[in-house]
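Work Package 4 report. The design task specified in the project plan requires that, given a folded chain encoded as structure tokens, an amino acid be chosen for each position. We show below one input record used in the internal validation round.
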């Protein structure tokens, strides 16, 4: 499964969206290989994304309204982020929004009940792995929590960091032999295709921002896509495999 986090540029505090320029080429690649993907979209960018043109076979899911850490918000603010993002995305793209991904993979107590109350079906907000200051937990496969199907991201073999382009870049080329088994969810941000700006913060954050970004990140993504494609969206995968998995009868 391929997931794309559509959000503001990492280097920006003013909500720049230069990274969206890379989406048409990604969409073309998906179409040429008969692939699908899930776009976890920050709804503040919905209309800008709509103007680019999103193929009908790609899934639209929520990545909140503003990409703020939900754990740091008040209950009222959290509800707004869940409800308003779903409402805006469905209005703009004219399709049902079933999935949600918490910004920065940072959840909060009661989040899944809030998702259920808002009308979501699944979440991909957890990572089976470690990121200091964000998460530290391990899971074996999908599970239900408060009636919401949670699909955690796997970690790289041998290292408890998420299976996505940020850490794949950092540990490349060793990461080539660290890919987890199917069913796997891969994620990336188009903003990784921008050249790395100077970044303040700890060593891990600095590495995430700068390691093999820009054209090198684009090359690595194409390498992964070619090796493991064609890909599917989470929604397409669930339609084909949910009953088969035994998670539902």
């Amino acid at each position: 499964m391929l997931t794309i986090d559509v959000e503001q540029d990492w280097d920006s505090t003013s909500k720049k969206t230069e990274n969206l320029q890379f989406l048409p080429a990604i969409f073309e690649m998906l179409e040429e290989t008969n692939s699908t993907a899930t776009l976890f979209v920050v709804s503040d960018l919905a209309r800008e994304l709509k103007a680019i043109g999103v193929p009908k076979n790609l899934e639209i899911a929520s990545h909140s309204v503003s990409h703020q850490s939900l754990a740091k918000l008040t209950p009222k603010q959290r509800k707004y982020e869940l409800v308003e993002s779903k409402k805006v995305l469905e209005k703009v793209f004219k399709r049902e929004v079933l999935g949600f991904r918490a910004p920065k993979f940072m959840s909060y107590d009661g989040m899944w009940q809030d998702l259920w109350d808002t009308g979501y079906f699944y979440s991909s907000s957890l990572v089976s792995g470690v990121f200091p200051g964000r998460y530290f937990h391990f899971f074996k496969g999908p599970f239900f929590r408060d009636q919401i199907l949670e699909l955690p991201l796997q970690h790289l073999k041998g290292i408890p960091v998420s299976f996505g382009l940020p850490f794949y870049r950092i540990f490349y080329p060793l990461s080539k032999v660290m890919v987890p088994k199917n069913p796997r969810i891969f994620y990336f941000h188009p903003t990784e295709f921008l050249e790395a700006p100077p970044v303040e913060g700890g060593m891990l954050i600095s590495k995430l921002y700068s390691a093999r970004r820009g054209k090198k990140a684009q090359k690595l993504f194409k390498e992964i896509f070619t090796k493991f494609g064609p890909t599917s969206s989470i929604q397409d995968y669930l339609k084909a495999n949910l009953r088969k998995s035994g998670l539902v009868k």
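The longest strand covers residues 2-6. Validation will be extended to a larger panel in the next phase.
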